[in-house]
Design goal:
Blueprint: H1 2-13, H2 18-23, E1 37-38, E2 44-48, E3 59-63, E4 67-69, E5 72-77, E6 85-88, E7 95-102, E8 109-117, E9 122-128, E10 134-140, E11 152-155, E12 164-170, E13 174-179, E14 182-188, E15 203-211, H3 219-224, E16 236-247, E17 253-256, E18 266-269, H4 304-318, H5 322-325
Antiparallel strand pairs: 1-17, 2-16, 3-6, 4-5, 5-16, 6-15, 7-12, 7-16, 8-9, 8-15, 9-10, 10-11, 12-13, 13-14, 17-18
The structure holds 2-acetamido-2-deoxy-beta-D-glucopyranose (NAG) (7 copies).
Residues 41-42, 252, 270, 273-274, 298 line the site of one 2-acetamido-2-deoxy-beta-D-glucopyranose.
């Protein structure tokens, strides 16, 4: 959370529209009644990021520029403030996310695969370029950052030079972190403070890189990142080859029916996505609900997911947690 919070802030500073974020600043479903989340209404979804610009059809670039190349989607940090990030236009509610990528080089550059919900449940893979023999796993429930003892370090060989497949398999009973097909960590529901800290609400998938070692970051973040980033040694690049997602509860929308943040409180619905059939523009979409509107060619998604996520981050900052986090 230390990391992804700073990541979100870096990305915001780099130009995520503040007006969008502010719209959602106060919508944490633990405290408010929030618009439904747009769900992925299919069991599986795959992206080959070498395929050209069509690869991004259900992804939003929330910060910087990310393009398809023959090596995969290219995420590049060239100067202070760069934090290229993409995010799914949809949420999944329990599922499996597999991402094959080559991490960025340099000192203090963080390559990440993060899943995050509106009430700040979070599941992470994070590779710190400075330490090229391991990758970190981490998780948070309901934005609880009272301790940073939830992470583990997992051995990995040449994460910068070599593509590895980083997988999260997430059910209501346990989370598995899987590296190149081998389970390297299992978190049982009961082991996360009897489930209280267990990630269990619909999540978006985010991938990107950012400079944990940026000289303007706090001393704690720079230390975690293994030192200050020297931008003259860049550019620092991550290549993302492919992502395969399985949604264990495919549906058009997910709604928090109460403020517990428990998975049993999430209701799923299919009534929204193929309900209308008139227009192929997004003019009928309601950004406020972040929901999908139908088009004859398929669903058109609004940017609701993006805004909500960054909005949550902002809200936490507003709540005074920033000092504790950075
Ligand atoms: C929700 O509201 C309570 C008080 O009503 C407050 O203590 C808490 O920080 C809020 N939580 C979030 C995540 O906004
Ligand atoms: C690269 O991606 C940006 C959006 O991130 C897009 O505007 C631009 O057209 C793309 N460039 C190429 C060459 O595809
Ligand atoms: C996703 O699935 C495709 C097709 O089966 C496969 O070629 C690719 O390696 C998979 N990617 C990941 C990250 O598992
Ligand atoms: C936050 O997590 C800690 C364990 O890391 C736990 O002791 C505490 O009870 C949790 N707080 C809440 C409000 O769930
Ligand atoms: C990463 O950077 C170090 C130091 O500049 C360099 O020695 C190494 O060759 C680089 N590795 C890659 C894969 O670019
Ligand atoms: C929603 O539709 C999808 C795709 O047809 C289906 O797999 C899923 O079971 C449905 N979910 C609900 C809650 O009806
Ligand atoms: C909506 O329509 C698409 C395209 O026909 C289909 O793949 C999807 O399963 C439908 N969703 C539901 C919930 O019926």
């Amino acid at each position: 959370m230390r990391s992804s919070m700073q990541w979100a802030l870096t990305a915001l500073a780099a130009g995520v529209p503040l007006c969008a974020a502010q719209t959602y600043t106060d919508c944490n479903p633990l405290n408010k009644t929030c618009p439904a989340d747009t769900g992925l209404d299919q069991w599986s979804f795959s992206t080959d990021f070498t395929a050209g610009s069509s690869a991004f059809s259900k992804w939003t670039t929330t910060s910087g520029t990310v393009n398809s190349t023959s090596l995969g989607a290219k995420f590049e940090v060239k100067e202070e403030g760069d934090a290229p990030t993409i995010q799914t236009d949809f949420y999944i509610f329990f599922g499996r996310v597999e991402a094959k990528f080559r991490c960025a080089n340099g000192t203090g550059i963080i390559s990440t695969l993060v899943m995050e919900s509106d009430d700040l449940d979070e599941i992470d893979w994070e590779q710190i370029s400075t330490f090229d023999t391991y990758v970190q796993t981490d998780y948070f429930g309901k934005g609880n950052t009272t301790s940073y003892d939830r992470y583990t370090n997992v051995d990995v060989t040449d994460p910068v030079e070599t593509y590895h497949t980083y997988t999260i398999d997430w059910t209501s009973e346990r989370i598995e972190w899987i590296l190149d097909g081998t389970v390297v960590r299992t978190l049982e529901y009961a082991d996360a403070v009897d489930g209280t800290n267990f990630p269990q609400t619909p999540m978006v998938v985010k991938l990107g890189i950012w400079a944990g070692g940026d000289p303007s970051n706090s001393a704690g973040t720079i230390e975690w990142a293994g030192g200050e980033t020297d931008y003259t040694a860049g550019p620092f690049i991550m290549y993302l080859e492919s992502v395969n997602i399985t949604n264990y509860n495919p549906a058009c929308s997910y709604t928090y029916s109460d403020k517990t943040g428990e998975y049993t409180s999430i209701t799923t619905s299919n009534s929204t996505c193929n309900a209308t059939s008139s227009s192929s523009t997004s003019s009928k979409s309601t950004t406020a609900s972040g929901s999908a509107v139908a088009a004859s060619s398929g669903a058109v998604y609004t940017g609701g997911a993006t805004s909500l996520s960054y909005g949550s981050a902002l809200f936490m900052v507003g709540g005074g947690l920033l000092a504790a986090l950075l």
